[in-house]
Amino acid sequence: MQLIPCPWCGDRDEVEFHYGGQAHLVHPADPDALSDEEWAGYLFLRDNPAGWFAERWSHAAGCRRWFNVLRHTVTHEVYGAYLPGEPVPVIAS
Amino acid sequence: MADTVATLPGALTRAAPPPEPPAAGPHGRHSPLQHRADELARAGRPGRSGVELREVPFLTQFNLRRRQRSGHNAAATLGFTPPLALPRTPGTVRRSGDRMAVWLGPDEWLIVTPPGTAAETGNTLRAVAEASAGPDGEADTVYTAYTEVSAHSTTLRISGARARDVLRKVCPIDLHPRAFGGDACAQTLLARGARVLLVADREPDGFLLFVRASFADYVTDWLLDSMAEYAAGDSPFKNEER
Amino acid sequence: MNSHRLRTGGRIDRAHPLTFTFDGTVHTGYQGDTLASALLANGVRTFTTSLTHGRPRGIYAAGVDEPNALVGLHPDPHAPDAAARPAEPMTQATVTELYDGLRATSLRGKGRLEAGRPGDHGRHDAMHAHCDVLVVGAGPAGLTAARTAASTGARVVLLDEQPEMGGSLLGTREHIADRPALEWVRHALAELAGRAETTLLTRTTAVGCYDHNYVVAAERRLPAAGGGGRLWQIRARRIVFATGAHERPLLFADNDRPGVMLAGAARTYANRYGTLPGRRAVVAANNDSAYAAALELADAGLEIARIVDARDHVPPYWAARCADRHIDVSAGHVVVGSRGGDGTVTAALLAAREGDGTASSAADCDLLLVSGGWNPAVQLHTQSGGRTRYDERLCCHVPHEPDPRRRVAGAARGLARLGDCLADGAAAGADAASDLGLSAGQTPQPPGAWEPAPLPPLWPLPACPAAGDPAAQYVDMQRDATLADIERAVGGGMRSVEHVKRYTTIGTAHDQGRTSGVTAAAATAGVLGVPVAELGTTTNRPPYTPVPFALLAGRARGRLHDPVRTTPLHAWHLARGAVFENVGQWKRPRYYPRPGEDMATAVDRECRAAREGVAAMDVSTLGKIDIQGPDAAEFLNRVYTGGFAKLRVGSCRYGVMCTADGMVFDDGVTMRLAEDRFQMSTTTGNAAAVLDWLEEWLQTEWPQLRVFCTSVTEQWAGVAVVGPRARAVLARLAPQLPLENGDFPFMAWRDAEVAGLPARVARISFSGELAFEVYVSGWDGAALWEAVLETGAVEGITPYGTETMHVLRAEKGYVIVGQDTDGSVTPQDLGMDWAVSTRKDFIGRRSHRRPDTSRPDRKHLVGLLPWDTGELLPEGSHLVCAGSGEPEARTPVPSLGHVTSSYRSAALGRTFALALVRGGRDRIGGTVHVALGDRTVAAQVTEPVFYDREGSRRDG
């Protein structure tokens, strides 16, 4: 059971959260300006790294806020959480 | 069936109950756990090593939302007498007299006032909404919304030296006094997925559980089952074992 | 009786005898015994027969590493509390605490599941715990770790699988600070018990260590305490694994006979249980620990015939002590086989290590004690992502660069000497606390314990060419897997220990390779001719020890299993004998049978009432979301396919929501309460998902929109009053409310007093009939329902359930999201273009002109009328073409789609169905065939509206 760091409520068990997939994908402002292929890319294509990944999470059973988490998909290490609109944190090596 | 006495958290419980509003309609209103009042009364054990569970029905509850256009926190003080400040710190409650403001999110609070005070609380919230609405479109304009949710959830009070142990069986968050102090609140999942709002009661070792009405029986079943080992005699609740 | 019991000593209570039965024979043991120690004390040597080879086997170990002594426990059927006694289909005799009346049978061969065997009646539950420092294992290292951590004020949990704490010290006569070690244990425990923030758990095994220091531990409760157990779910900020080590077996021919036993186990039986497992022993060793065991056993009265040390040099300290006791030591020798008689060992066959393997002598014995060194118990460390490396000096796999959040201390990281373990634990406990910013003014100093520096073990032993038949050298006794199996695996081309494990099944039985895993890896390395370090070991996975399913289930059975949601009218439904249907987590009445009615009859009656008179339904379960803010209308315009900006206050509108890929996600009716306020309704099972969806877009895509969403589902209880006589019933309930079409048109809502209750009434119809939905506070729901039924009685009002609701809506072709759709269906596929705006953008709109969504041959929602009007098509049935002129017997026959809804209709006097059919709208008027097992049924394709196509009935 992972601990997900809600920026508001602190660390909570992952069952309290909903996973929102890759972060920093923006809904196109004018979908009509996109080709079918570009639109399909927005809908269906996601990064799938074995390593650090910026993801969206929602504290569904708590404060209902969406936020982003930088998490390692292999070790499940969590680097930290940040709010929507904020840039991806840089991991100090 | 035991008389359902509307009571409030903490100190107020020892005061005279507030006047009941007249029964609405010919058949009377029902709190979600009214039919289990006797069962709850039988299940507990008072005293130093005991635990007690009661419904605190018919509390007036409003969901309050306030946000600056800039997205900033817009906590305010509500013009009750005495005034009630909204907590800014996540996971905390503020109390004033017999009213309580519970942090639900960075722009969301639950305002809890005694039974029968929906009109007064609604007026107070309307006043704060109207007073704070600045010129539309400015970054510091505050948007306010509120809606009554009194019947959306009911309240259980669990108290006694074993209350924490009972909750530990069903609740994954840390309830140690160091982690969950006297002004703490948390929304979390209870048992196998019932969303609840847990609030530290004014009395030590006491907790208030705000449970959505539709989940109230399920949560009560779990609490009664978890209480069994700390209560005298047989638990009134019997789960189907097999 | 107790032929092998010592007169004194041990941690058993000789004043407290216990009677028990093993394989039908009555024996006596003492309080403090395990089943295994009591059987050994009674001289029981052959315990069982092995899995596939049918070889006799005895007790081999003294704890969770026992491979042979599996038993089933049964309650005495005549005991007055039989029902409360645990029935345990499989456990190890070495971890079964003896109790009076225990009845055990050995599990021979493959065993078998017995139908009707009583289940585990003990009470199993779960408990969450949080701590600063969790210490797993209360041996010397664990105790000092817990002491130092607790002295800083940290919240400490110390757990141990044994009934009492002390770990290895319980089975030895070691000294700490020049006093018997158990005196120190007692003091340390008293100190820990006095700390308010320390929790001590015995009989509790940490079985898994999961992400982010989440440890699951299984606590057993004794039968006298009701049996059962508790599953601890512990979230620890820091962990110290002080899990000790398991003694390694040795490989030689016939190393599995009863009487062959781990040296440390025999030491434990003597010291802890006052039991000698034999009379005369040969000790085969490759390391120092066996000397301490042999000497303590000798002191307890066991004749040590000989110590066989594979190493060329006997440690001088131990050599001197053996000489004192006239114990012969053969250095540079190994055991190459055993002789047996009557199934049990009678002699050890010895040979020079460097020789050709021919036995040079035989030493008579009835006990052959083996010690192949020690495997650190790194299971929890590796489960949680830790790695190990092979230490050439210690000859074992030790934790490699453990994460400081999960330290490993003592024998679990290869330390052999007691003093080292005590100091190591103390340091780990202090470091764990200091990581958290906790420190004590005075950290308790670890006590001293002297032992000679050990000589390195010699391991793995080189395979002797003639050390007996490889097929008789047992690597995994539980699986009856031998060195020959490993040779066969390697000969078959396998090079990885994981492959060898799966081919030979070594390490896959109840101990998950605790004794056999490392031995098997070393044997594989030997056969391959590579160093042990190069090959590594197999992966450890939870659970560390077997966990009963009853414990995992805990109390979450029956009513406590999954959340059940009920409406304020539930008691009434129950009292009226409603048959319920699960809708999401909700219990909804499906129908209300009258005496003698089956479902079809009851639904037929309820449908007629709604179509011909008046009927009422509990609609409280519909999700309700309060949506407020200056941009609320704009927001709804974006999330619904239809337009909401121009909806007038006092009106409502049906809306369809799509996901970004254009597929239908939810639908419902939304009321405009004010210019800046709406109340949305969602499908019953989808309320939480819809609220999440709205918040996702508001918070992550459109934070500039000034909108707040709040769930108010249970704030309102709702009753639908449906049918041509609905207006007459409402008129009696709400005399002040104008109800005529002009005053209160379809898709309008009004606030009014209904039955004396403050209410909101909406003219919404999910049946095609004149209908009102009345909403009141959840507190008033029961009152409203009873008033509706009382008042409507003169009109013959009939309560109806979800089945009738389904029939009524399907007759009108109204879809149910999630039944007639499955996440691959667009509004256009459903023929609902009318609900999709062409004048504004909304979520998913762009997807509706993707090539795939604009294909003409997509599956469309159509109606089906079976040719046989009595044929009820099963929902989910596949549809195939009528004889379409294609070559016959084309296999497989392509599916055209499937039946999504199917009912009997009272109004139509026949069955009918809705279906998703490829190019369905072009097939209207045609025929499809429904595949039903070995027959097919023909059905006509129709428009998906069967009843009142003109919509003339909704206004009454």
TrEMBL record, chain A:
<protein>
    <submittedName>
        <fullName>Sarcosine oxidase subunit delta</fullName>
    </submittedName>
</protein>
<dbReference type="InterPro" id="IPR038561">
    <property type="entry name" value="SoxD_sf"/>
</dbReference>
<dbReference type="InterPro" id="IPR006279">
    <property type="entry name" value="SoxD"/>
</dbReference>
<dbReference type="Pfam" id="PF04267">
    <property type="entry name" value="SoxD"/>
</dbReference>
Automatic annotation (TrEMBL), chain B:
<feature type="region of interest" description="Disordered">
    <location>
        <begin position="1"/>
        <end position="33"/>
    </location>
</feature>
<feature type="region of interest" description="Disordered">
    <location>
        <begin position="73"/>
        <end position="93"/>
    </location>
</feature>
<dbReference type="InterPro" id="IPR027266">
    <property type="entry name" value="TrmE/GcvT-like"/>
</dbReference>
<dbReference type="InterPro" id="IPR007375">
    <property type="entry name" value="SoxG"/>
</dbReference>
<dbReference type="Pfam" id="PF04268">
    <property type="entry name" value="SoxG"/>
</dbReference>
<protein>
    <submittedName>
        <fullName>Sarcosine oxidase subunit gamma</fullName>
    </submittedName>
</protein>
